[in-house]
């Protein structure tokens, strides 16, 4: 029973974290057809900025509540600045190129971002446990859990809901769906596709940074976290079907719960359980659960 | 055509004795880098021949690691230290694993192939990192190499291992050059151009991709064995996707035009790395990334295409080349 509760709560926590870290990746792919490996770089930038800002703020000894504003703010700054620089500075010259080539381009950007974080923050680890610590713990059927974990779950649900409402029930969202459906026709209809691309990329980058920023209080931020997250985020979005936000949610839940199950039942397999699940899903549905049918080029 | 040696092959055969003689001329540390980069160069070759078919493998480190670890495991648990036996073992394990995985991967192209090969290599990374019997993330050491019972020590041992590395690399390079000019090589180029038409012409594209995948795995596993023997150590970092990324980097930088390009590219990269890490350790990846962007934008066929532009002026017709990702 205890194990079941632990798997349920941990699974939900993992899923929330995975969804936040991967939704930006699927959004950018869905709109722009770019599998953005630099997403890992945005994640790391967000984590570093948040850990550094929270550290600075804590030293001033001011009121605690504001740190919960600092985290999203740090993500926003990191995401918007780096996202804009990457999109305006590099990617916009590459639109229309082959998808695989774009993977290589974003991989090169990822390498550059890795060193940018090292140049700004050095190679030491940053620890900013305070926001997670101050909220204390809560007992779930006798098992203590940090309240912060539930805060992340709430944020993940809020982000998912916000994206869903924006896409399906606002004018901008519906225009974006048109852009996804057919880039050329929407251009002909007078939609500013370039602007949509820039905004989407910046939002995607900010979401990646937010994933990193929210995780920062729970981990020690070290070089290499970006390389780890990109593989996991890819596994999540490919399970659900790349480009589908609902798919990312489902993928995060599947991966989250199975990883939690492995952690509690068979710990040695934890590190690769994600890819096992992915391989199992793809063996049945080669392009993920919610993948759209695509026409073949003759 | 297939019976005679072409220019590249003659070049390789002439280069072999020169390469081996380097050990008596160059300082030991340079030779060491040559040896190490021949090992990783073979893996880059594996990436390159897949790139000719339009497939970008972001997980070639998997077979690099399979080769290294099968040599390591055979040494650790079976007490085998014979280089030739270890090479065969690495080759066989690489072929077996890639043959099975090929049934999954041959269904995918483009970004899916890239990212799935990456994910598969990360399974092994996770597995090895959490296996304490094999030293987890620290890995373990390999035995000193022997040759049919002969166990040379010190400098003789080093020279011997270096010579074997050179010979094996040249054999593989010639073999792969042959494969590129064989029907399979031409089918691969056709797959890159238009897979559906290949199928209409009555050839199974999936089968060709599968075979190419296995060949690439075999050459990468060989590289893994040679690299591991040269360093005397293996660790899971060999199959981390960041390692695989560097093999892709070499293939992009060198281009897919010639079989020798990735080998030379690897060596240059290795030397640049030595200096870059010394001068400013935190900008090494930034240099890599910038170089890669510049190559993609300005030299989409890699540095080797510069050689062909020079040749064109003298009237020789250059061979067809793959542009990365097309």
UniProtKB/TrEMBL annotation, chain A:
Gene Ontology biological process terms from the UniProt entry: amino acid transport
Q: What GO MF annotations does this protein's record show?
A: transmembrane transporter activity
Q: Which residues cross the membrane?
A: 6-29, 41-59, 65-87, 99-121, 147-167, 188-213, 219-240, 272-293
Location relative to the cell: Cell membrane
Q: How does it sit in the membrane?
A: Multi-pass membrane protein
Q: Which UniProt keywords apply?
A: Amino-acid transport, Cell membrane, Membrane, Transmembrane, Transmembrane helix, Transport
What domain of life does the native source organism fall in?
Bacteria
For this record, the Gene Ontology CC terms, alphabetical, are:
plasma membrane
Location (main, coarse) = membrane
Q: Could you say which protein family the record assigns here?
A: Belongs to the binding-protein-dependent transport system permease family. LivHM subfamily.
Q: What name does this protein carry?
A: Branched-chain amino acid ABC transporter permease
Which taxonomic lineage does the organism of this UniProt entry have?
Bacteria, Pseudomonadati, Pseudomonadota, Alphaproteobacteria, Hyphomicrobiales
From TrEMBL, chain B:
Any one GO CC term of this protein is: plasma membrane
What membrane topology was assigned to this protein in its record?
Multi-pass membrane protein
Q: Which UniProt keywords apply?
A: Cell membrane, Membrane, Transmembrane, Transmembrane helix
Q: Which Pfam families match?
A: BPD_transp_2 (PF02653)
InterPro entries named among the record's database cross-references:
ABC_transp_permease, LivM-like
Gene Ontology MF: a single term? branched-chain amino acid transmembrane transporter activity
Where is this protein found? Cell membrane
Chief location bin: membrane
User: Where, by residue number, does the polypeptide cross the bilayer?
Assistant: 12-31, 51-71, 83-105, 111-128, 160-180, 246-272, 284-304
* UniProt-recorded name of the protein: Branched-chain amino acid ABC transporter permease
Q: What is the protein's species of origin?
A: Roseibium aggregatum
Source species taxonomy: Bacteria, Pseudomonadati, Pseudomonadota, Alphaproteobacteria, Hyphomicrobiales
């Amino acid at each position: 029973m205890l194990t079941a509760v632990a798997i349920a709560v941990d699974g939900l926590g993992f899923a929330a974290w995975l969804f936040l870290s991967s939704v930006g990746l699927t959004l950018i792919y869905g709109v722009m057809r770019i599998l953005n490996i630099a997403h890992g770089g945005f994640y790391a930038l967000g984590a570093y900025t948040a850990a550094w800002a929270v550290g600075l703020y804590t030293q001033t000894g001011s009121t605690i509540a504001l740190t919960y504003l600092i985290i999203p703010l740090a993500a926003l700054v990191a995401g918007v600045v780096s996202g804009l620089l990457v999109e305006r500075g590099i990617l916009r010259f590459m639109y229309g190129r082959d998808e695989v080539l774009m993977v290589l381009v974003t991989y090169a950007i990822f390498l550059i971002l890795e060193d940018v974080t090292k140049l700004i923050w050095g190679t030491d680890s940053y620890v900013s446990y305070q926001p997670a610590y101050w909220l204390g713990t809560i007992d779930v059927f006798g098992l203590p859990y940090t309240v912060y974990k539930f805060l992340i779950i709430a944020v993940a649900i809020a982000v998912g809901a916000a994206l869903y409402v924006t896409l399906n029930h606002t004018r901008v969202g519906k225009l974006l769906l048109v852009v996804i459906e057919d880039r050329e026709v929407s251009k002909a209809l007078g939609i500013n596709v370039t602007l949509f691309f820039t905004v989407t990329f910046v939002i995607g980058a900010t979401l990646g940074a937010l994933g990193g920023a929210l995780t920062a209080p729970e981990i020690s931020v070290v070089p290499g976290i970006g390389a780890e997250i990109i593989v996991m985020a890819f596994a999540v979005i490919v399970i659900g079907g790349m480009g589908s936000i609902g798919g990312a949610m489902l993928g995060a839940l599947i991966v989250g719960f199975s990883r939690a199950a492995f952690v509690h039942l068979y710990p040695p397999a934890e590190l690769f359980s994600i890819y096992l699940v992915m391989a199992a899903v793809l063996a049945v549905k080669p392009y993920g659960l919610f993948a759209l049918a695509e026409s073949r080029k003759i | 055509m297939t019976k005679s040696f072409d220019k590249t092959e003659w070049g390789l055969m002439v280069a072999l004795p020169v390469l081996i003689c380097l050990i008596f001329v160059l300082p030991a540390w340079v030779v060491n880098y040559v040896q190490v980069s021949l090992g990783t160069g073979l893996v880059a070759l594996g990436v390159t021949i897949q790139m000719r078919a339009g497939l970008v493998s972001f997980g070639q480190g998997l077979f690099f690691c399979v080769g290294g670890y099968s040599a390591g495991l055979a040494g650790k648990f079976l007490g085998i230290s014979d280089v030739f036996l270890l090479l065969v073992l690495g080759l066989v394990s690489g072929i077996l694993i890639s043959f099975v995985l090929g049934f999954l991967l041959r269904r995918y192209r483009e970004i899916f192939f890239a990212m799935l090969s990456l994910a598969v290599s990360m399974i092994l990374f996770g597995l090895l990192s959490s296996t304490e019997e094999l030293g987890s993330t620290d890995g373990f050491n390999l035995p000193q190499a022997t040759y049919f019972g002969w166990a040379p020590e010190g400098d003789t041992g080093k020279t011997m291992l270096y010579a074997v590395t050179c010979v094996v690399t040249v054999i593989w390079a010639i073999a792969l050059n042959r494969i590129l000019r064989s029907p399979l090589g031409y089918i691969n180029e056709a797959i890159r151009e238009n897979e559906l038409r290949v199928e209409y012409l009555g050839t199974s594209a999936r089968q060709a991709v599968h075979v190419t995948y296995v060949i690439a795995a075999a050459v990468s596993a060989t590289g893994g064995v040679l690299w591991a023997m040269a360093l005397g150590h293996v660790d899971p970092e060999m199959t981390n996707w960041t390692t695989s990324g560097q093999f892709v980097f070499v293939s992009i930088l060198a281009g897919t035009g010639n079989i020798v390009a990735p080998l030379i590219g690897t060596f240059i990269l290795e030397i640049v790395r030595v200096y870059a890490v010394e001068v400013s350790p935190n900008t090494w990846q930034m240099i890599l990334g910038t170089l890669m962007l510049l190559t993609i934008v300005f030299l989409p066929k890699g540095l080797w295409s510069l050689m062909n532009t020079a040749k064109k002026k003298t009237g020789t017709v250059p061979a067809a080349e793959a542009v990365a990702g097309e």
